[in-house]
Write a structure and sequence with these properties.
The complex is a heterodimer. By secondary structure, chain A is α+β, with helices and mostly antiparallel strands. Chain A is built from 2 helices and 8 strands; from the N terminus they run E-E-E-E-E-E-E-E-H-H. Chain A starts with a strand and ends with a helix. By secondary structure, chain B is an alpha/beta fold. Chain B has a single domain, classed as 3-Layer(aba) Sandwich (Pyruvate Kinase, Chain: A, domain 1). Chain B is built from 7 helices and 6 strands. The longest helix of chain B is centred in the last third of the chain and has 75 residues. The chains are: A alpha+beta, B alpha/beta.
Chain lengths: 138, 298
Amino acid sequence: MADTVEFELVSPSRLLKSEPVEMVVVPGAEGDVGILPNHSPLICTVRPGVIKVMESGKVSEEIFVAGGFCEVSPERCTVLTEEAILVNDLNRQDAEERLRQAKEKVASATEHEIEEARKHLTLAEEMMAAIEYVERGR
Amino acid sequence: MANLKDLKGRISSVKKTQKITSAMKMVAAAKLRRAQEGAEQARPYAERMHRMLTSIAKSVGDTEGAPKMLAGTGGNRQLFVVCTSDRGLCGGFNGSIVRETRRRLRECARNGIEFKVITVGRKSRDLLRREFGDKIAASFTDIGRRGVEFEEAVEIADKITEMFEADEFDVCTVIFNKFQSAISQVVTPQQLIPFAADESDDDGEEDKASDGPRAVFIFEPDEEEILEDLLPRNIATQVFQALLESSASEHGARMTAMDNATRNAGDMIDNLTMTYNRTRQAVVTSELIEIISGAEAL
């Protein structure tokens, strides 16, 4: 039995990561999903949040994703996302700027656009949360 | 016979043209490499998106609740998305796309099928405007100035989705140049809506072999909700892929065209130089004859 799962992180412009890992925790739309080898096949949506890659029982890498989709098969876990940033590379200024813009958008959005604007807002909020989390850790 | 000064002028002007075309060729070659890399790197995303969508589509099947974007609306109103470049001087690149589009549009018009067009790139807009000006629903220009960005594809996809939701068409097809090599680009029509599950089976083959029999998936949240998110995203991805292919093709076509132009200019310079030398010799000869016969007459 394989003791690693092939983790792939793909963005529209390129394949960001493709490596065997022990476990990944993906922020699913209905709660975080921990994926170990031989997970049963699953397709779920991913909310904006942090993907945690676990190596020998510890978190070895944390990647912020702006939502997307996740497909799991027993030997593979593929995450499709439009944007992915290493948590340590997140920039507070950028995130604050995005949060501000998103708030403005929600405030000025018409009924038609409101859903889209809310999505941006959640994204920006999650980004801020991730940054705060990192800063607290240091 | 043309006089020497004129010939000299022409030679130098052809030489200047040659310099420009050969510079353009080199620029196109550099851009081609980048565009090609971009297209290759984007492939995994599109492939996996397709794989995911296919497995969901299989599980949803033809049930009543299947979203219209997947199952189709049953109508036959067409929307064409035509991808061309903003600039010319790239051989038959734009011509072949526009020719194919015209053919399809005329066919639709003949059969009384309603159709609309979205043009991407300045050239398709300019070339189609005269005949089908009233059918152009939207035009996008300046796409991929500095490499194609996913956001640009999203913009186009949003427009398509918006039109679909407003019930303006039933079938959507992108027409673009698929990049094969620097000298060959193939005009490819690709259906976006409704989702065609089988069309790109060939490039997903390797994945299938390793997956074995398709497993039953757990969906979280349920299929419909995932589809609702996934389908528009898929359109953006497909458009993005088309834009990338088209941009690689454009640079390839331009490179080839400019290579030919450079070579033709070389030939022309050779010919002109030959004529120039002949003329010069004739002038010298006739001058000599004049002097000699002048001296003899004394």
